[in-house]
Each structure stands twice: as C-alpha cells, then as structure tokens.
Amino acid sequence: MIKVEFLGPIGKEPVEIDAKTLAEVAAALKRDPELEKWLETAAVAVNDTMVDSLEVTLKDGDRVSLLPPVCGG
Question: What is the structure's pLDDT at 70?
C-alpha cells in the first residue's frame, strides 16, 4: 500500500492506496471531487523527493505527498 499525504490547505487526512505508479495514484485521487483542483496545481513528492512524472514506479510502503502552491511575503 502507498500512503498519500495532503499538506497545507488541502485539509484531508492521509489515505492508503494500492498502486504501482503515480499515474495509478492520480487516477484514484481524481475520483474525489474535493481533490480535483489540487491535483492540477500541487507539486508531488515521493518519499520526500520531488518528482515531475506520473510514470514513477512505487513500491509497498512508499509515501506520496501532495504539496499545494503557497505564497508568502
């Protein structure tokens, strides 16, 4: 199972998903209407390493984090 964390203002509790790639995680998360807007803009990290491809292979125990855009000053 893959643990998915939602950071910052996304405001959802972590979930566990059975997935082999980030594409599979994205497909599962798209079923939640509350997450749709975040999926388009959030950065993604796997085990604290930023990634930019949905083709990343995952293994049991990996942690995927969705990091929404932030602004500061």
Answer: 78
Task: Tell me the whole-structure pTM to 2 decimals.
Answer: 0.90
Please, where are the H alpha helices in the chain?
Answer: 22-29, 36-41
Amino acid at 68: P
What homologous superfamily does CATH list for 2-67? Beta-grasp domain (3.10.20.30)
DSSP 10: G
Lowest mean pLDDT among 33-42, 45-54, 60-69: 33-42
Rounded distance between C-alpha atoms, residue 40 and residue 68, angstroms: 10
Please check whether residue 29 is in contact with residue 21, taking contact to mean a CB–CB distance below 8 angstroms. Answer: no
| Encoded tokens for 48 | 């604290």
